[in-house]
Amino acid sequence: MLWIGISILDTTAATILLSVLLGVLFTGKIDNTVFGASTSAIVVSLAFLEKVIFLPLLALTITGIIDEKGNDYVDSHKTNKVIAFFFLHRFTMKIGLLTLSLAGIFAIQYMLAFLLFDISYDTVGFFSGESKKKLELRNINSETPHPQTA
Q: DSSP 3-state assignment of 29?
């Protein structure tokens, strides 16, 4: 409800939040009925209210898809530490949003708000043990040869 409320009141926030949601949707990460229904409600609401800026939405959605695909890749493949860190913390969208902010399309405050949103997301993952599980999975997968590299 908070997400929808913020999006109705602020076009830039709607654009950024919807791009996160679409990145997750297009990569098949919506894995339950409630999340699917919520996603549909948000997309329909924002489309109906015309509360998004199309080109930045497209750019950020693409960066979100790259982040999700990259995150999946580093979860299951051995990579160098820089690439693993980059995609585990989904930096592509951060760079996209920073670019839009520096170009004057979005105010820099949105970059700060997005970073705080992302830090809270990572913090929840840390305290829920997800980060440790991902690290353990990554270590197991990096020790096991993959069919495409074996």
A: coil
A 10 A CB-CB count for 146 gives 11
DSSP structural state of residue 31: -
Q: Which residue has the tokens 């890749």?
A: 73
pTM for the full predicted model: 0.77
Does residue 23 lie in a domain region? yes
Show the DSSP H helices in the chain as ranges.
Answer: 2-9, 11-26, 33-49, 54-76, 81-88, 91-102, 108-128, 130-143
* Total domains, the chain: 1
Q: Count CA atoms within 13 Å of residue 101 on its CB side.
A: 17
- The domain containing residue 10 runs over which residues? 2-143
The token duo for 47 is: 């489309």
Instruction: At 112, list the tokens.
Output: 């700060």
Kindly calculate the radius of gyration of the chain based on its CA atoms and give it in whole angstroms. 17
Nearby residues of 88 by Cβ (< 8 Å), 6 or more positions away: 71, 74, 75, 134
pLDDT tens for each residue of 90-113: 899 999 999 999 999 999 999 999
